[in-house]
Amino acid sequence: MKVTFLGTGTSQGIPVIGSDHPVCMSTNLKDKRLRVSVLIEWDDFTYIIDCGPDFRQQMLTANCSRIDGIVFTHEHADHTAGLDDIRPFYFRQGDIPFYAHKRVLGELAKRFDYIFTTKDKYPGVPSVIQHEIKNESFSLGNLQVMPINGYHYKLQVFGFRFGDFAYLTDMKTVADEEVEKLKGVKVLVVNALREKEHMSHFNLKEALDFIDKVKPETAYLTHISHYLGFHDVVQQTLPENVYLAYDNLKIEL
Ligand SMILES: [Zn+2]
């Protein structure tokens, strides 16, 4: 399995528009963060998790010309606002499979009604195949994927375990029985916003405590704010099996 981090930034991305914060001014490419998404490839299958406002740019950078579907964690705009740009995939492949909680599918149908409607479609508008995810395993390609239920403040969010790889973002609370589902995972990706506490995201300490509970071989932090600091500085403070993810990082399992 090959995983590409398409984006690793929090909702505004880094740099933040108009900001003169030193991290936003950094010339290190590891301090440039698009909105979070990952590309997961195994055998002949290619899926992405989330489809934020940087989706087009991310697909071009990753040289990705075909996807088998998009899996959504939740409906917030930094995870869904790029939806119109599935058009090139739709033109080549036909209807694009979406996998999401029923509530998320409903929200997307409100925001992108022209995509979800089945009558009087404007020519060139893409179409999707909706797959509802419940908190039970579902198949993607030849793999059974296990959702991990958590909360982003009060909003339900799904993380996902693809065999030895798990990806959780926008988590603030995860019940013990959900953490159990992550036991034995080799690579864990989890969100870490900044050092200071936040109402709806793990801060760095909460992310490290979470990693300590799951005990993966290796962990990567994502959904990072400029307030966390410079990549190269923060990386030196982390335990030896924990890494700050950065855009275009590729890992193989
Ligand atoms: Zn987010």
TrEMBL record:
Entry-linked InterPro entries: Metallo-B-lactamas, RibonucZ/Hydroxyglut_hydro
Tree of life domain: Bacteria
CDD domains hit by this protein: metallo-hydrolase-like_MBL-fold (cd16279)
Metallo-beta-lactamase domain ranges (all copies): 34-223
Pfam families xrefs: Lactamase_B_2 (PF12706)
Gene Ontology molecular functions: hydrolase activity
Swiss-Prot/TrEMBL keywords: Hydrolase
Name of this chain's protein: MBL fold metallo-hydrolase
Native species: Psychroserpens burtonensis
